[in-house]
TrEMBL record:
Pfam families: Biotin_carb_C (PF02785), Biotin_carb_N (PF00289), CPSase_L_D2 (PF02786). Residues 38-488 form the Biotin carboxylation domain. One of its GO terms (molecular function) is metal ion binding. The lineage of its organism: Eukaryota, Metazoa, Chordata, Craniata, Vertebrata. Residues 565-615 form the Pyruvate carboxyltransferase domain. The gene is LOC114770206. GO terms for biological process: gluconeogenesis. GO terms for cellular component: cytoplasm. Residues 158-355 form the ATP-grasp domain. InterPro entries: Aldolase_TIM, ATP-grasp, ATP_grasp_subdomain_1, BC-like_N, Biotin_carboxylation_dom, Biotin_COase_C, CPAse_ATP-bd, PCB-like. PROSITE patterns: ATP_GRASP, BC, PYR_CT. This is Pyruvate carboxylase. Keywords: ATP-binding, Biotin, Ligase, Nucleotide-binding. The keyword Ribosomal protein does not apply.
Length: 615
């Protein structure tokens, strides 16, 4: 059951203050003046599965959808799943197109878009984009530009968490500007420590330092990585928590200061600080700890005036102590598992909140939000786990997915014939399973992954299957070092690809003939073909002559008088019509015809040229 988020009715017309809030440059001050302003047309400034996820929600709510796509994405499915689609960033490299704020705003204005959903990644956490939308009178489906800015700066977010009484990992109060500051920090808190990019994300720009000798090199590397990836090399230092769980809380806030949480997700299964498998709710979580995590998240969100959907991320150490790490002020890749266990459609909620509806009005009250069963999400990527998860590219020769009860698939261009390009991230399909508890959801996931047949590009499915059947994953708890510490996860069952090999063999045989030694060695030149000669003179008479000379009655008489079987030959027709490559042309049939006329004159009829033309 979905919670009903209140259908928009048209009768608000007279009351509607069109875009009043957005004409104000002080986006955060508009909350009191807003009436419901139905959104009629949404643009998603993103691509792939998340664009489609949002289009689907819009379509369900009767909202028209607009896609934007880069030149490299002309053949992508998100273009087709929207009511309208427009090219952006002409002549730009693939990623830059989706970061081209002026072009995106231009397309929005030209096509009467009234709200923009940023998805995740790309511009989703850029306050200058949220501001550009506001300035253009287009609603940004997310928090105010000011909140996006504060949350995007990890150092500032930390400071706000401290103000809200939320525990944080011991760390520097601000960005560090010298190696000396890092040294001082390590002296006070001891190793290991972690360098983090102040404006980082997606697990990039982080470096763990385990002893003094590694300090300088890692400082320099982290700085240049952050500079290259985020355009700003600012770093801060945190104590590195040993083998923590990554647990994050989903929150929703409206324009009126109401904030609720939708419980937590466990995203501890990570590779290089990037999530691979996510589950909700977290397994074996102490209810008191759950309380603290959710309360802290709601308090922090209230403190900053958080509006729309967001996630508060924590690390939980081995003693069950939790530490805030960051806020993601957008919809996350793993939002799906929360939807599965709470029956709340987060994108519907985002749209309604943006229209100015309050959480209670949407039926989203804290005491109504319940955890129902368990859900797991696997990110199926076109990466080869046998080669250090190198992205693989090419054409999907075969694509069949695992479906059935308890399985949800969120994908974009996952179909036979799709081209997997190297331009964007390698997420192919999100497989989400749900069941009454974690082992049930895991069974469904395992079954679904086994059903997938993806050929032409490598995927991480064999690796995911190993994770999903791991005893610790199924019955215990895992921490963020789980993948690094379990080498057996990399013992991959090779895909034999038998069906494809057989098909290739048959295709090759049909087109090129046999390649095996015995038939190949029998040289055609060793056999002397028999070339029939055509006798001189007119061919002997046959049944056709009877028909021509004596008419139908005479013909019928001749048939009745004939002793023995009469034959019709269909060789000409078969040779002419054959679907094989050896089709015989009319030109050649005509050359054979005289021999047939001389030697098979006693045939009743001949079928020719692929139809019912009896000769
Ligand atoms: P991002 O912006 O890339 O998501 P986060 O700060 O959320 O960065 O950290 C991502 C992951 O990196 C965490 O889930 C965790 O595995 C690891 N990590 C981050 N900070 C620490 C820390 N202080 N101690 C241990 N692991 C950490
Ligand atoms: P490969 O040749 O790479 O091993 P196949 O497509 O031939 O892959 O399938 C291998 C085996 O998987 C089959 O022999 C069958 O036992 C099993 N199998 C086939 N289809 C399914 C399915 N839909 N779900 C689960 N197992 C399947
Ligand atoms: Mg994070």
């Amino acid at each position: 059951m979905l919670l009903h988020l209140g259908a928009v009715k048209g009768g608000l017309g007279a009351l509607m203050l069109r875009r009043v809030c957005l004409l104000s440059r002080h986006a955060h001050s508009y909350s009191q003046s807003v009436e419901h302003q139905p959104i009629k047309k949404v643009m998603v400034a993103n691509r792939g599965e998340i664009a489609i996820r949002v289009f689907r929600a819009c379509t369900e709510l009767g909202i028209r959808t607009v896609a934007v796509y880069s030149e490299q994405d002309t053949g992508q499915m998100h273009r087709q799943k929207a009511d309208e689609a427009y090219l952006i960033g002409k002549g730009l490299p693939p990623v830059s197109a989706y970061l081209h704020i002026p072009d995106i705003i231009r397309v929005a204005k030209e096509n009467n878009v009234d709200a923009i959903h940023p998805g995740y990644g790309f511009l989703s956490e850029r306050s200058d984009f949220a501001q550009a939308c506001a300035d253009a009178g287009v609603r940004f489906i997310g928090p105010s530009p000011e909140v996006v800015r504060k949350m995007g700066d990890k150092v500032e977010a930390r400071a706000l968490a401290i103000q809200a009484g939320v525990p944080v990992v011991p760390g520097t109060d601000g960005p560090i500007t010298s190696l000396k500051e890092a040294e001082d920090f390590a002296k006070t808190y001891d190793f290991p420590i972690i360098f983090k990019a102040a404006y980082g994300g997606g697990g990039r720009g982080m470096r763990v330092v385990r002893n003094y000798e590694e300090l300088e090199e890692n400082y320099n590397r982290a700085y240049s990585e952050a500079l290259a990836a985020f355009g700003n090399g600012a770093l801060f230092v945190e104590k590195f928590i040993d083998k923590p769980r990554h647990i994050e809380v989903q929150i929703l806030g409206d324009k009126y200061g109401n904030v609720i949480h939708l419980y937590e997700r466990d995203c501890s299964i990570q590779r290089r600080h990037q999530k691979v498998v996510e589950i909700a709710p977290a397994a074996h979580l102490d209810p008191h700890l759950r309380d603290r995590l959710t309360k802290d998240s709601v308090n922090l969100a209230k403190q900053v005036g958080y509006e729309n959907a967001g996630t508060v991320e924590f690390l939980v150490d081995k003693n069950g102590k939790h530490y805030f790490i960051e806020v993601n002020s957008r919809l996350q890749v793993e939002h799906t598992v929360t939807e599965e266990i709470t029956d709340v459609d987060l994108v519907h909620a985002q749209l309604r909140i943006c229209e100015g509806r309050s959480l209670p009005e949407l039926g989203l009250k804290q005491d109504k939000i319940r955890i129902n069963g368990s859900a797991i999400q696997c990110r199926v990527t076109t990466e080869d786990p046998a080669r250090g998860f190198q992205p693989d590219t090419g054409r999907l020769e075969v694509f069949r997915s695992g479906e059935g009860m308890g399985i949800r698939l969120d994908s974009a261009s996952a179909f036979q014939g799709a081209l997997i390009s190297p331009h964007y991230d390698s997420l192919l399909v999100k497989v989400i399973s749900s069941g009454k508890d974690l082992p049930t959801a895991a069974t469904k996931m395992n079954r679904a992954l086994a059903e997938f047949r993806i050929r032409g590009v490598k995927t991480n499915i064999p690796f995911l299957q190993n994770v999903l059947s791991n005893h610790q994953f199924l019955y215990g708890t895992v921490d963020t070092q789980f993948i690094d510490e379990n080498a057996d996860l990399f013992h991959l069952k090779p895909v034999q690809n038998r069906a494809q090999k057989l098909l290739h063999y048959l295709g090759h045989l049909m087109v090129n003939g046999p390649a095996t030694p015995i038939p190949v060695k029998a040289k055609p030149s060793d056999t002397d073909p028999v070339i029939p000669t055509v006798p001189i003179g007119e061919p002997p008479l046959g049944f056709r002559d009877v028909l021509l000379k004596e008419g139908p009655e005479g013909f019928a008489r001749a048939v009745r008088q004939h002793k023995g079987l009469l034959l019709m030959d269909t060789t000409f027709r078969d040779a002419h019509q054959s679907l094989l490559a050896t089709r015989v042309r009319t030109h050649d049939l005509k050359k054979i015809a005289p021999f047939v006329a001389h030697n098979f004159n006693n045939l009743f009829s001949l079928e020719n040229w692929g139809g019912d033309l009896h000769k």
